[in-house]
Amino acid sequence: MRLILDAHPEIGCPGETGIPSLAARLEDVWAAICTDLAGENVAKPPANVLRSMRRALRAPMEYYCQETGKRIYCDKSLDAPDNLAALGRAFPTAQYILLFRQVLDVVASGLEVSPYGFRAFGYAPFVQQSIDNFVAPLVHHWATRARAALDWEKANGSRCIRVRYEDMVADPGSTLRNIFEFLGVAPDESAVARALGAAAGAATPGDAKIAFTTEVHTASVGRGRRVPITLIPPLLLAEVNEMLAMLGYPRMTETWNTEPSAAGDAVVRASRNADALVASMPARIEPTGLAPPARIFAIVAEDVDGLAWHIDCSTGAVGRANPTAADTTLYGSADALVAALSGEENPATMLRDGRLRLNGDVGDGRLVVPKHVTLVIRALRAGVAG
Question: Which residues of 300-319 are buried (b: 16+ CB within 10 A; e: fewer)?
Answer without folding.
Answer: bbbbbeebbbbbbbeebebe
